Amino acid sequence: MDNDSGFMNRHYFLLRRLHSLSGIVPIGIFLLNHLLTNASIAWGAVNSRGSQHVSAGTIESVGEITARQVGTFQHDVTFINNMPFLILIEVSLWLGIGFHAILGVYYARTGKSNTSRYAYQDNWRYSLQRLTGYIAIFYIFYHVATLRWGWTFLSPTDTPWSHEQAASTFALALKGKVSGISAGGIAVSLFYFIGVTASVYHLANGLWTAAITWGLTVSEAAQRRWGYACAGLGAGLMVLAWSSLIGFLLLDVSSAQKIEHDLHAGHGSMVETEPHAADETQPLAEAR
Amino acid sequence: MSKQAPQQGRTIRFRIKRCDGPGKPSYWQEFDIVPEKNANIISCLKQIAETPVTVQGEKTTPVVWDSGCLEEVCGACTMVINGGVRQSCTGLIDVLAPNNGDTITLEPMSKFPVVRDLWVDRQRLFHNLERVKAWVPIDNTYSLGAGPKESPDSQATHYKLSECMSCGCCLEACPQFNIEEDESKWDESFIGAHAISQARLFNNHETGKQLKDERLEELSGKGGVGDCGNAQNCVKVCPKEIPLTESIAAMGRATTIHAVKSFFSGKK
Amino acid sequence: MSEQRVIVVGGGLAGLAATIRIAEQGIPVDLFSMVPVKRSHSVCAQGGINAANDVARQQGYSEYQHFDETLIGGDYLADQGPVLEMANFAPKIIDLLDRMGVPFNRTSEGYRALRLFGGSLFKRTHFSGASTGQQLLYALDEQVRRFAAEGKVKMYEFWEFLWPVTEGEGEDKRCVGIIGQDMRTMQIRAFRGDAVVMATGGCGLVFGKSTNSVICTGGAASRCYQAGAWYGNPEMIQVHPTAIPGADKCRLMSESARGEGGRVWVPRQKGDTRKPTDIPENERWYFLEERYPDYGNLVPRDIATREIFDVCVNDGMGVDGENQVYLDLTHMERDYLNSRLGAILDIYDKFVGEDPRETPMRIFPAVHYSMGGLWTKHTPGDAVPGEPRAVVHKPGDSAPIDADLGHGMKFCAPDNMMTNIEGLYAFGEVNFAYHGATRLGANALLSCIFDGLFCGMSVSKYVTEGKPKQHPASGVDQSVFDKFVAAEQGKMDTLLSGSETGASDPDTNPYTIANELGVIMTEASTVVKTEEGLEKCLAKIRELRERFSRVRLGDGGAWTNQSLSFTRAVGDMIAIGEAIAKGGLLRKESRGSHYRTDYPDRDDVNFLKTTVAEYAPGGDDECNIFYREVDTRFIKPRPRTYGKTDDSQSKKTQEKAEAQA
User: Fold this and answer.
1) Fewer Cβ close by (within 10 Å): the C or N end of chain A?
2) C530 pLDDT exceeds 70?
3) 3-class DSSP state for residue A170?
């Protein structure tokens, strides 16, 4: 421990700044990208090319909008999944998050919240930054563990996720049932809502304070202006986050499965425009 | 001025957190007072000292508290009043307790060790000024002519920063500055907004600049400006309205530049 | 040599300046203060610090004129040599403070800005907003912190000075240290010092409510006085014309408010209940401007005080029938006011709840400064003036004496500002030396720092070349110190033995005794004094002394016993109060701040003399008064009128009465 704190003290400034930086790169950048991807489950509705690989029959049975949503989302997921050196990107991301989390907890423990005495807005921000940090750690761990690593035993919905059937399996993981929502699903959904909200807040506020820490915004006016910018960014990310959650909650799992089946079947010949029959193969989830 | 005239001759109650000395338990006592005209916390504490009898009729010792100028320029009489830190001399009774039966709660500052009752030992606050070498390193006090010229704008900025009276309000309200009775740990504990702001003041002075790097080294280390959590309570409770958060950001910038320079100049 | 040490008691401007100067000479300093030095009373000084400067010089001003103004301001009661030296040294002090980083206000070109102050027609006051004392104190505090960090100064904060330790008797009597008490642990201890510098400020608390800090009891000076040090001109107490009356103290409203253009007035109509802003210009009585066309609102403080007192108490013309007049800044630009006077306007705003930028302030005089104090010696400088000058020195006249070092007071002479006890010095407000019978505004900061820097050299010379060279304090027998420690311990035990938790019998309550002392002193010995009033005051003091001998503390504890510290000071305030009242009773004339209605004129034949009070315990009175000649080598005293018009008050009052009828 002495050695640890010796190391910490010797490189105190560097670690502080790396901590700040790691919240933006890679974590913040990734979060932005990730939320954009996920939000396509909602905003894919306006993407007319989203349904281009879905058969006409499926479109007819599930509706154009759903086809576009699932199609767009699956397309994005597939794109990410096909990125070269994905594992390197993933590992560096995990390292970044781990670094940020461990140091963050260490730093957060040096403070003592006092909002009960000094109920200023900024003081609430300070306390929330720490609280959301803790939440985000649990949330991100849960999120990655249950969906990426397949530790479904951690989840009350106990459902694995597959990047080939990204929308339907995630909707299932969220809701716990093909139709309606299970009690566990409510818990998971609520946790997702809190977790993603906390993460977005943590990033937006972190961006605001980082500008002070690094000395980009010195004057009170600059801090205020940058505050508006960060609040705007936070609001935007919040819209993305909440709309994707709502999108998945409203998503009809069996429709999604149909669409994914179409997409999956056509994967080898994406250029083909000939629609496939909807009933050729069983949807994955039903096969279990 | 549409404020209602407070009732003269009213009785108000003081709830005071007392402590007989370091390591002793704290306890509460209540006193009823008929405040004088234009009374403040200080004049009420004087009344209590003259007749130290609690609400329960128990005779007790006069309450011990720290005070000095009573004009809000010395910083001595800082305490926690109704839950918030401030100077007690500016605590006007007509504002704090305008009605009969109103209660005012007094507590010692919580971020410094209690000496007795409302009196705390703020030595660490001054020690932290030493950490940032908050002085201009003049050669000597012999006659060597005038100091550097300065623009009125620059003077206005420096004067504002120089008004810090080391009262400790910014530290009391800071969630990152916490009580540390072990003197050997002071140098690694958060230095506080007041010292960061003084570092900025002296780094901006023509001669004070000579110690700039040493100040920035101190601020870059453990307990330095990096420990600030940006709760920004400091600037809100500062009785002198010193732009402490701007100072923190300015020193954030200075330490950033200092680090980059050191990195490339190979000094470290 | 290195074992020699100097003790400085008091961490205000004088104490800090002395500490820096002495430590700089290579002599370690032990600095004692009842408060962290940064909280010393010097922070309360607002207006500025005087010094001849290049701008004023080119308008016909000079160090010599500053000297002349200070003398007439003090009604010629100050010894002239030290005053000359101080005025000549002043510009060096400003330069040094400038180098230390004091944020003096600036002109647009970047030079130090200047403002007008009382008793002068020239701008010769340097300032840092309206908290100049605070800014100067911080600059010195920073330098001392630096020395402390380097180990050249050892700080004893929250230590109270109890008594000077002396050895020998008569001619051989010499101060070799002090007895101090830790105000937290209550430990009483002796400290050895080859010289002891008292820099413990004034005694405003003798008057109960004053503009002073709660620590300004004069306790330390009184203890030296009771230990045999002489006390000079005790009756010379300055009452500042403009203060904000409060329940706990009177808060100063700086003279700079008038220096920057503030105007003092009352409604011409007695009992006018209109809001001040509703009263038209021609219905306002600017009595100072009317009576003193040259100096206007900037007459010296004692004069302004008496005029305000006269208007309120004698004429009953005070605002709303109360003892208060308007101090009006509302005709001035907000931004200008903020940059020049922001700090004091905020004080008014915070404590009164009205914005003085919008509404005229309501003010009344309050006890402010002790011109008197421990009597000190000095070695005259090398100027040989011949006959004292009788001609009035006018702007542009070439100064008869140049401003070089050592003309007024010999530089490095060991006895400069040494009390009658060898090795015991008194610097700053605690001595009697520079301000005579009234101090001019913005001369206090100057005299404090001047003592520290100029006379600090005297201390180091005394220590390195005087008696301590052969007989350092470190060689004094321990029994000498033990004896003094035992005496102080005994006094403390006596006080504590009568304690009773929560004791509040007014007859023996220290707080009540202090309040009663304050009331009688303010009544009898401030703006207007009479033989009858002072006799009554002295009788009351005898009563209070007797009651004090039976005093009962409400706290008998052995840890951070504030009641003990306060009670001890009450006894010391009674002793000083007696000297103040008795000095006033025996000075049968009016001079500067000392105004006797029964002797309204200055009497240079009988009273151009320093009052010296000597403590003489045992009798009914504990104070002996004798007189010493004042050094008037340079300038022959002239009438102190400040161009007052013939338009006398009684005539005015009469006119008003007629108008009303």
Assistant:
1) N
2) yes
3) helix
Number of domains in chain A: 1
3-class SS of residue A106: helix
Q: How far is CA A34 from CA A73, A188, A241, in A?
A: 11, 19, 9
Domain end residue (candidates: C475, C507, C535): C475
User: A108-112, C320-324, C553-557, C654-658: which range is least confident on average?
Assistant: C654-658
Tell me the per-residue pLDDT of C559-618, one tens digit each, with 9 for 90 and over: 999 999 999 999 999 999 999 999 999 999 999 999 999 999 999 999 999 999 999 998
Determine the distance from the C-alpha atom of residue A259 to the mean position of all C-alpha atoms in its chain, rounded to a whole number.
23
Q: Are residues C300 and C355 in the same domain?
A: yes
Q: Please report residues of B whose CB lies closer than 8 A to that of A16.
A: 226
Nearest CA in chain C to B133: C146
The CATH number that applies at residue C514 is 1.20.58.100
Q: At what angle do helices B193-204 and B244-265 cross, to 10 degrees?
A: 60
Percentage of residues of chain A with pLDDT beyond 90: 84
- Nearest chain B residue to A113 by CA: give it: B175
Task: Give the residue numbers of C marked as catalytic.
Answer: 301
Same domain for C381 and C352: no
Comparing C-alpha atoms, which of A123, A116, A171 is closest to residue A147?
A: A171
State whether C41 and B69 contact (CB < 8 Å): yes
Chains C and B touch (3+ CB pairs under 8 A): yes
In this model, does residue B72 exceed pLDDT 60? yes
A117 touches B: beta carbon within 8 Å: yes
pLDDT digit string (tens) for A261-282? 999 886 444 433 344 443 433 4
Render the burial of C210-228: b for 16+ CB within 10 Å, e for the rest. bbbbbbbbbbbbbbbbbbb
Q: How far, in Å, CA of B224 to CA of B174, rounded? A: 14
Which domain CATH number covers A73?
Answer: 1.20.1300
- On the question of pLDDT at A201 being above 50, the answer is yes
Question: C512 CB near a chain B CB, below 8 Å?
Answer: yes
Q: Which residues pair with A198 in a beta bridge?
A: none
Question: Structure tokens of B224?
Answer: 């330095």
Query: Quick one: angle between helices A12-22 and B244-265, nearest 10?
Result: 110
ipTM of this model?
A: 0.97
**C 333-392 near B (Cβ less than 8 A):** 339, 343, 347, 350-351, 353-354
- Contact yes or no for C214/C337 (Cβ under 8 A): no
C89: containing domain: 6-239+370-475
On whether both C487 and C469 belong to a single domain, the answer is no
Q: How far is CA C582 from CA B126, C221, C447, in A?
A: 43, 17, 26
**Tokens of residue C519, six digits:** 């009331």
> How close does chain B come to C495, measured CA to CA in Å?
15
Residue to mutate among C41, C248, C347, with most B CBs inside 10 A, is C248
Asked, for residue A244, whether it belongs to a domain, the answer is yes
Residues C520 and C586 in one domain: yes
pLDDT score for C660 = 55
Contact C225, C583 (CB under 8 A): no
C500 and C564 both lie in a single domain: yes
> What is the pLDDT at residue C455?
98
Q: Does C320 touch chain B (CB under 8 A)?
A: no
Of the candidates C275, C311, C375, C394, the one whose C-alpha atom is nearest the C-alpha of residue C638 is C394
How far, rounded to the nearest angstrom, does the alpha carbon of residue C88 sit from its chain's CA centroid?
Answer: 21
Cβ–Cβ gap B175/A112 under 8 Å: yes
| Contacts B160 to A, Cβ<8 Å | none
Name the average pLDDT for chain C. Answer: 95
CATH number at residue C353: 3.90.700.10
pLDDT recorded at residue B4: 58
pLDDT band at C91 (very low <50, low <70, confident <90, very high): very high
Chain C partners within 8 Å of B35 (Cβ):
247
